[in-house]
């Protein structure tokens, strides 16, 4: 009996390894074709699904933000209409738009400008609120149709942070720096580093600034979108002379 067991035993090294492709049974052509078809179908479905996500994502975000904005604005006057027994969706939104329009007319007058100036005087003396108000006012002033002295003048392209690299910015003011070497026209260029809230100010020679054929709103869209709305071609505009302020550079003895 012991001899029969020894004769029927097989060493482990000679046993068939199911994971070894050399020792596994050959696959049929039909199974290989089936696997190839499944891989192609899976790749096609994945591409089409991602294409649908790319198309629907901005649409969904746009509708969601628009719906949220309508509900948010509608909520200002909806409680007033609810107390009056008027339940019409969107009436509060239209009332809010009419209110904003009337505020614009009022602020354009001398009395409205005086009221706004007094309100800003109180807000700028609040420790924390004044910083939020200053940042938000800078953005609203930049896109304001009344391009006054505090708004962004033009879109500028400057060499930053080194030669050969460029950065988008906004010209906020111009000046003439008077020194012993002569007068030098400088432009104050605001370069945002975190959308439009935080940025750096550079004084750049006006001759070294590239003024592209972009409006201020287009420049803001380029910065806020992270450069995704960048046009394929940008051409510089002709230089327009401006009124400058003279600043005398005094030497320290």
From TrEMBL:
Superkingdom in the source lineage: Eukaryota
GO CC aspect terms: Golgi apparatus
Alphabetized UniProt keyword annotations: Membrane, Transmembrane, Transmembrane helix
Region annotated Disordered, chain positions: 1-33
InterPro entries: COV1-like (IPR007462)
Transmembrane segments: 49-70, 90-118
Pfam family, one: DUF502
Signal peptide segment: none
Protein name (Swiss-Prot/TrEMBL): Protein LIKE COV 2-like
